[in-house]
């Protein structure tokens, strides 16, 4: 049954998938970091990982700061139950994107991204997005290794010289294991190719994951077709930005790279705790008391970046992208799909429960960001639309310097005033151009009249001279 959309997209009828998802959070199946399985499952997974470790270490993907072969192997194990996308689901995805693109044309001046529309399962999402994840993860892992070496005493660095290659391989495997688990988690929960507002899908591809969307919509009292069209509209809107704002993708990725270049590891608190042990005293009671204090302390190294401004810039960009998407989709679908407001609210809850860029980057890349202020950014774009219209609003994406700042997201008045000033200047220039054109036309008309008058006077003068000459000749006769 099409339910008015011209295509069918059934709710998931798998009882196992539905169990545990009908809670107060409509996207409750998207809780990142949710544990599962007992000790036996963990040991079994560890044994499977070790079975392919030797080949992974010696492969091309095992070289470098991250063992990507191992990461992919672990991620694939976590999503091994993923099923191929059915032809019916693939057609539903294509129709939903086509419909969403048609409606988005009324809400934004940015044209459709065109390209390819794809329906992925979790395995296809992993394979398609892994290259972009590698681009963001590699610089972080490399500079993390460098920071770890810098934090070590010089004597320790000299002692490990002969073992440096093995240590690098072990570090690459460690990063690979962490990345594999993180990507496996994301792959089972992602709804679109550029989910979370991150441009991780290949350029020119608008992709949806219908099986994951079905699981998400199972806990909603909303027709599955409406959920699919809403998700399609969000992805199509993102792709318009990524396609027609050419600097945007590079700015997001370069912010991650810039943050990574400034990574530092602070172990001063660990050294201070070691000094407090006072092992030289030989007093067993003092040592026992010191160890008791250590048990309640966080002795993990503190990781930060000298380029903290890059993280702040990334937070602002992610908020502006998702805020713009949220506003444009609400404008395009609000009067066409009654459940748009409910879906937007559900999407906001999904961000809180884990479906957001900051948490995805934290799990995969290790960058700790504040939650992007998407709702505040959406309100800013709404006010900009009311003030100057969608065309002037979308022109702010022409250059990074035109975009709102982090302060503007919290207090949009100054940004709105700047848009109004630009709009006034543009209208003044148009009126001034019309005035100049009118004056030129008047000047041309005046010159034409003057030219006609000179010609008439000249002709009159010639006739007068001719008459005087005739009279003179007559008198002489």
Automatic annotation (TrEMBL):
A GO molecular-function descriptor: hydrolase activity
One family name in Pfam for this protein: Zincin_2
InterPro entries: Zinicin_2, Zinicin_2_N
Signal peptide: none
Biased composition (Low complexity): 1-11
Residue ranges with Basic and acidic residues bias: 455-477
Keywords per UniProt: Hydrolase
Region (Disordered): 1-31, 436-477
Stored NCBIfam families: putative hydrolase
Protein name in UniProt: Hydrolase
